[in-house]
Structures are given as C-alpha cells and as structure tokens.
Write a structure and sequence with these properties.
By secondary structure, the protein is of the alpha/beta class. 44% of the residues lie in helices and 16% in strands.
C-alpha cells in the first residue's frame, strides 16, 4: 500500500506514515487507493481480532507479516477489554441500537486504536533498537487511552497536552495519576484547539521533530483511522441480519476522526446508508454539511467536553475527497482557512458530501433531557456524548433503516453530568476511589509552543 498527502506529496510505506504522523507538506496521509473489502466475503461469526486482521492487512501490506500482525492484535486486545467481543450492543427499540465502544481499560472508544497502535510502534522500534517521543492533544479521552497504552512500553515516551478546566475531573485523573517515568502530562491554559495547534506546530518543525524523534498519536495519524474502521464492519456483521440491508451510524463528533473512520469503511465497500455527524454547540461540522461553509467560531464549554472543538483536523481528509483528491486544491483551501478562518465548497461538492453525510446539533439542555428519558424508559445510562449521538440519530429515524449510535464513552467518566440529568445519586464512581486518592502529576503551561518544546528538550537531555 502506498500513501499520499492531502496536499500532494507521497509516501512509499506504511512505516513511513506511521512514524511521520503528518506529511512534510503539512497535509494528512491517506491511501493512494481504497482497498475493496466486501461484506459478503466475511463470515458474520468472525471474531473481532480476526476481522481486524482482515481489515488492516491491506493497509500494512508485507511490512508486518500476517503471523506477526495477528500476534500483535491478539496481544493488544485479548486481555484489555471487559467483554470477549470488545464491542457490546444495547437495543433501545426495533431499529435503534447503542454500539458500546467503552469496554476498554479507559472506558472510551479511543482504547480500540491506542491498545493496538502503540504495539505497532513497538514492533518497528524493537526491530531497529530505537526509541521515540509521542505527542498528543486530548479533549479528554485520547490522552487517557494513549497513556494507558504507552505506560507499558520500554521504547516510547509520551507528551500529552490537555486544556485547562475543559475536561472532566475523572478524565484528568485517569491521566494524572499514572506515574511512570515515560508519561509527561501538560495542562495548557487554552482550548483543545490550542493544544492541537501546538502539536501540529511541533510536528511541522521538521528539525525539532527529527532531533527528538517525535511522532503523533492523535487521529491525524492514519493508523488511528484504519484501526477504528474495524468496528463499523463488526457492528454491521452483528446487526444487519435483523432484516435491515443498510445501516445508519450516528457518531458523536469533535475532531472528525471517528466518523471519518466510518467513511473509510464506506469507501472500502461497507453498505452504510448514512453517517450522521452529531455535534454539540461547537457545530462547525453541522453548519458545513448544511451550508458548505466551514467557519471557525469560538469554542463553547459544554457537558460533552470531548466534542468541544472547532477545528476538526480530519476534516482535511474529507475535503481532499470532495475536491477530487487534488492536493493543490486542498492546500489552497487549508491556507484560506488559516488566513481567513473559513472556507467554502460549491453546491456540487456539498451534494457529494450529503450522499453519505448528514448532521445534527444538540445543545446541553436537550442532552440532559435525552439522558433522563432513556434512563426512565429503559433504565439505561447514556454519557452526554452518546446522548448527542442519539438525538441526532432520531432526527433521521425511519423504520426502513437500522440506526446505530456509537457510545463513545462510559457514563462513569461523566458521573456528575449524568446524575444531575437523572436527578439521582447512582454511585457510578464506586470502585474508582483510587483515582481520587492518588497524587496527581502534571505541569501547568501557558498556551505557548515553546514551553512545550522546552519540556521535551529538558526531558531528553
């Protein structure tokens, strides 16, 4: 498999795009061609691990042998998740199913990617007797998942940036109470977009990145996306036999990585009807899919903090597809975004986007209502992000399609919001006392890329 950048340059190997994270021209890597994986060629009883091997192999090619890749996948997943199939399902009614992606060690969907991505890094590092530094921005869940995976590695250190006062206490403590020497947590006095901007700035500084062997584990790294596409296939295989030929997936969306993974599955041949982009008050993507204008506003602080994002990094990958895979056109549009804070596509390009994408916006008061209603009717608890996804799904609900709502995090991670919504004390944090009794370790930094660079430099003297 060969890869190319959304801004024109090319890469010749999977290993190159794994360790680069971002292309030298500032773009994001995508496959040169989409592999074809038909649903009819897969046994519906296939295990998640065997399915992952089937989906990921075309993207990796011969760079990791089939036997080695199978071992990496088994070692990554078989003891890390609380259910054997990794994914579990909750049917709310005949054509409405919650896809539970929070069975991993940090109770969020990010575990699917991180538990596998880090061992793939390690596979190549061990071969070459090398070490690297990873950098990641988190709006809450990515950081915890990455730290949990990296803490077991002898070859990788991580620098994790999170926005001050914009993630839940539980989310912060999942990261800050990990004391291994290779874990470096930085609180940035800004928003997630500010954290992400720092990460991109460091990655784009080729001299600095090469000096300190820096790579990324945000979903700007293609490997994250390809790994996440697997659970779309798995969900379809397990649910489509209920008499529905096509499925809608509603995806709580911030950085556009998770729903873009669904788009990747669609491009490979999964017969998805619609991908519903579910947003909160930070609705830049909702506005785009309705008007064709992608315009940056201020970031609002909400009860679904992992979605409190305005600049969705993976949007560039979709833009590349809408512009006919033209690197020059994509580069021009992204330069316009940097200069003017907005870009537009034409009606024909928007029509192409709407062939697969719909969107819905849900504000905090409605989130509370949805959580309350589902709890009272089904005795089932939604976290606020999944409530956003469910509400968006219901705007397009009809009896002819199965609507799958991706539950991206456990309600445990947002216990205060959930308990307020249902007006009941549920003792969700029982068993997690250790997080609140352990000493926290993180540094407080200004919204300044040089302060983060200093942290990396000083730790690598």
């Amino acid at each position: 498999m060969k890869y190319l950048s959304t801004r024109g340059s090319k890469a010749n190997s999977f290993k190159e795009i794994l360790f680069s994270g971002i292309a030298e021209d500032g773009g994001l890597f995508v496959p040169e061609k989409w592999p074809s994986i038909g649903i009819n060629d897969i046994d519906s009883n296939i295990s998640y691990m065997d399915l992952a091997l089937k989906i990921l192999s075309p993207f990796i090619g011969s760079e990791i042998s089939t036997d080695n890749l199978k071992k990496i996948i088994l070692d990554a997943y078989q003891d890390s998740f609380s259910v054997n199939d990794l994914v579990s399902f909750k049917k709310l009614n005949k054509n409405e199913v919650i896809v539970e992606l929070f069975n991993g060690p940090t109770l969020a969907f990010k575990d699917f990617a991180m538990q596998l991505l880090i061992p793939i890094f390690d596979y190549f590092l061990i071969q070459e007797n090398k070490k690297i530094n990873l950098i990641v921005a988190t709006s809450g869940d990515t950081g915890a998942a990455a730290i949990n995976a990296v803490k077991k590695s002898k070859n990788i250190s991580i620098y994790c940036l999170f926005p001050k006062d914009r993630i839940s206490n539980f989310q912060r403590r999942q990261m800050s109470t990990v004391n291994e020497h290779n874990i470096n947590l930085c609180e940035i006095d800004g928003t997630f977009d500010d954290c992400q901007k720092i990460v991109k700035s460091i990655l784009n500084d080729q001299e600095f990145s090469k000096k300190f062997s820096i790579s990324a584990v945000n979903s700007i790294n293609w490997t994250r996306i390809m790994i996440q596409s697997v659970y779309y296939y798995f969900s379809f295989l397990k649910l489509a036999n209920d008499g529905f030929n096509k499925i809608n997936f509603s995806v709580p969306t911030g950085n556009f990585g998770d729903v873009y993974a669904g788009f990747v599955a669609y491009k490979m041949g999964l017969p998805i009807n619609k991908l519903i982009v579910a947003t909160n008050e930070n609705d830049i993507l909702h506005r785009f899919f309705n008007t064709g204008e992608y315009k940056i506003n201020n970031v609002s602080k909400t009860s679904s903090p992992s979605m409190d994002i305005q600049v969705a990094s993976n949007f560039e990958r979709l833009l590349f597809e809408l512009l006919g895979r033209s690197g020059n056109s994509t580069k021009d549009k992204m330069n316009d975004l940097d200069k003017n804070g907005a870009i537009n596509i034409n009606k024909e390009e928007l029509k192409i986007a709407n062939e697969i994408f719909l969107s819905g916006k849900t504000e905090m008061d409605v989130v509370n209502t949805i959580i309350n209603q589902v709890f009272n009717s089904s005795k089932y608890l939604l976290d606020p992000h999944t409530a956003v996804g469910l509400n968006a799904s219901r705007k397009y609900n009809d009896s002819s399609h199965l609507n799958c709502i991706l539950a991206t995090a456990s309600p445990i991670k947002f216990s205060e919001t959930v308990e307020r919504a249902v007006d009941e004390s549920l003792t969700l944090l029982k068993g997690y006392d250790y997080l609140f009794q352990s000493k926290e370790k993180y540094v407080e930094l200004n919204n300044n890329v040089n302060e983060v660079k200093d942290q990396i430099s000083n730790k690598n003297l």
